[in-house]
Amino acid sequence: MLDVEHGEYAELRESVARFAREVVAPVIGDYYERCEFPYDIVAKMGAMGLFGLPIPEEYGGMGGDYFALCVALEELARVDSSVAITLEAAVSLGAMPILRFGTKEQKAHWLPKLATGEMLGAFGLTEPGGGSDVPGGMRTTATLDGGEWVINGTKAFITNSGTDITGVVGVAAITGRRERDGKTVPEISTILVPAETPGFTVSKKYSKVGWSASDTRELSFDDCRVPEENLLGERGRGYAQFLQTLDEGRVAIAALSVGLAQGCVDESLRYASERVAFGRTIDRYQAIQFKIADMEVRAHTARLAYHHAAERMLAGLPFKKEAAIAKLVSSNAAMDNARDATQIFGGYGFMNEYPVGRFYRDAKILEIGEGTSEVQRMLIARELGVPGS
Prior knowledge:
Layout: H1 7-34, H2 39-48, H3 66-77, H4 81-101, H5 104-116, E1 120-124, H6 134-137, E2 141-145, E3 148-159, E4 166-180, E5 183-194, E6 200-202, E7 216-227, E8 231-232, H7 238-274, E9 276-277, E10 280-281, H8 286-314, H9 320-345, H10 355-363, H11 373-383
Helix pairs in contact: 1-3, 3-4, 3-7, 4-5, 4-7, 7-8, 7-9, 7-10, 8-9, 9-10, 9-11
């Protein structure tokens, strides 16, 4: 099993936990209320090397592994999920596809600034008319014309896509059609589109239920032209690349979910030891004790699940099923713990000035983003050999 109690992982955990408590916690509520992106916090995260944790030193990263990123995400999310998802999306969806599939020139051009947090990357996959059904719902196209890709289409719900420091978006697009098993299927490729490219328009920020201090927008492409060499990886392999990226990303989202679930325990313990009802603190009541115990069980179980998935990933073993289990279990834990924490806080839990109010608003998207809970169950069943419909 991965050892997070000793060595470099333990040192990383403590440094990020201290940063979350001392830097993020005192100010993030105000950012959240204003729906404002926390540029100063992101800059400090960059200075700590968090955006470069799994990126090799030759590209300006920390030379660590993907589990180091998960450790950081868990500790950040114990305090706030907006900053955690900013890091997660920037690394797992923005930088990692370039590291995994990019040419030497693409890596040398993009990774150094992505690794330091000076620049954020994003990945444009989801479209307004297609969520889980990526191939069937995709309408964005890219055609070659005179050595350039000409991109047309719209992307929805794209994290980190419209900040002042967003530098590049990987755009999944249909680049042709292929015959497979007697059927014509779309050929999907990924193309790197620099920010501020003519024809690339970023919408206003969404008004969201949660993650209010993170950046999420709709993107549109109208005869947007980029050089042919901006193709990321092989032509026609964009969807396969994304599936690999998403398997890793589910482990990261599971870590973030565990952080939120554990943050609910932290806040509930503190509040229950201070809140007096009927002449004594509410932590003396068995109903509250049992609720907090159940919350800790959920967080602990979910942590074991994502650690197991990460261990297999780092060992080079298949981990698709384990990643889906981790994502399903941890997102459920986050949602259940947020609900219970809000109940423990009573009326104060419904106030945005208290962290559990933010936790409750932030938890639901974890059952939707990077693969819905229903999709995770489909993946698990498929990996068990259950025939599809």
